[in-house]
C-alpha cells in the first residue's frame, strides 16, 4: 500500500529516488530514534529534534505542558517532520557531484492532544518502547504528578514520502580521465554493549529485553560489516596502505 500522492508530499527533485510505499516509510521511521519537527511561533520558523514512537499510521511525541513546540503544533493542528539515515559519503572527481547515500522520510500529519490518563499512558508506552522493544514493562510508570506535567501528542499520518539514494558515485564522462580519487565511504551506526548505571542496585542484572536488543543490533552491524568486503576490491586500486587502513578501522568494531 502507498500513501496518496498530494501536492505536499510529492517529490519534485530526484523523483527516481522517491517512494510512497507505506512499508518502506514505516521502516525508515522504525530504524531511527530522532525526528526533526518543523513549527512556527509568532511568524518565526523553528525546527526541533525529538524522540518519538509509532503505531501503524500514528506517531507520538511528548513534552512539557509548557513546551513551545507542542503548544505550536496544537495551535496549528498539523505538523511536518522528517527523519534521515546516512549510509555513505560519495566522493567524486568533481566538486559539483559530491553527494551521500541516504534513506529519508518526510511526514505530514494531523495533531491531536491525548488528554485521558489511559490515552496518555498508551502514547508514552509507544515512545518508550521505541527506545527498546518491551522497555515499558521494565520501568516505573509515570505517577500522577509526572503525567500531569507531560503533554502527549498523537499524529495521524495523512501523507508521507521517502527518498532512498543508494547509487554509486557519478561523474561527467570527461572527468573520468582526471587524476582525482573517487569512491564511497560507508557510514553506519554502531550499538555497543550496554553499560550499567554506576548507581545500579546490587543484584540487578542486565535484563533479557535489553540484551536481545543489543544482540539484534550487533547482528545487523556484522551484516553491514561483511557487506563492506565488496569495497576492498576497489580499495586495491588505491594501494596496500588503503586496504590495511580499511581493515584496521573495521576490525575494531
Automatic annotation (TrEMBL):
SUPFAM superfamilies per UniProt: FMN-binding split barrel (SSF50475)
A Pfam family it matches: Pyridox_ox_2
Coiled-coil regions, chain positions: none
InterPro entries: Pyridox_Oxase-rel, Split_barrel_FMN-bd
Protein's recorded name: Flavin-nucleotide-binding protein
Amino acid at each position: 500500500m502507498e500513501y496518496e500522492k498530494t501536492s505536499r508530499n510529492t517529490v519534485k527533485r530526484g523523483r527516481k529516488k522517491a517512494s510512497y510505499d507505506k512499508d518502506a516509510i514505516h521502516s525508515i521511521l522504525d530504524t531511527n530514534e530522532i525526528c526533526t519537527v518543523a513549527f512556527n511561533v509568532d511568524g518565526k520558523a523553528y525546527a526541533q529534534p525529538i524522540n518519538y514512537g509509532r503505531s501503524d499510521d500514528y506517531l507520538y511525541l511528548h513534552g512539557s505542558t509548557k513546551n513551545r513546540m507542542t503548544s505550536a503544533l496544537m495551535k496549528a493542528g498539523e505538523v511536518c517532520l522528517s527523519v534521515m539515515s546516512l549510509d555513505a559519503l560519495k566522493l567524486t572527481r568533481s566538486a559539483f557531484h559530491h553527494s551521500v547515500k541516504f534513506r529519508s522520510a518526510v511526514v505530514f500529519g494531523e495533531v491531536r492532544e491525548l488528554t485521558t490518563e489511559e490515552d496518555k499512558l498508551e502514547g508514552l508506552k509507544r515512545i518508550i518502547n521505541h527506545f527498546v522493544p518491551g522497555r515499558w514493562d521494565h520501568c516505573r510508570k509515570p505517577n500522577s504528578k509526572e503525567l500531569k506535567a507531560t503533554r502527549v501528542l498523537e499524529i495521524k499520518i495523512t501523507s508521507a514520502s521517502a527518498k532512498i539514494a543508494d547509487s554509486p558515485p557519478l561523474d561527467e564522462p570527461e572527468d573520468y580521465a582526471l587524476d582525482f580519487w573517487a569512491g564511497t565511504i560507508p557510514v553506519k551506526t554502531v550499538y555497543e554493549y550496554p553499560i550499567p548505571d554506576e548507581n545500579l542496585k546490587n543484584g540487578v542484572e542486565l535484563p533479557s529485553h535489553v540484551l536481545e536488543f543489543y544482540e539484534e543490533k550487533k547482528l545487523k552491524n556484522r551484516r553491514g560489516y561483511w557487506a563492506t568486503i565488496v569495497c576492498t576490491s576497489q580499495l586495491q586500486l588505491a594501494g596496500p596502505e588503503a586496504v590495511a587502513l580499511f581493515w584496521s578501522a573495521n576490525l575494531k568494531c
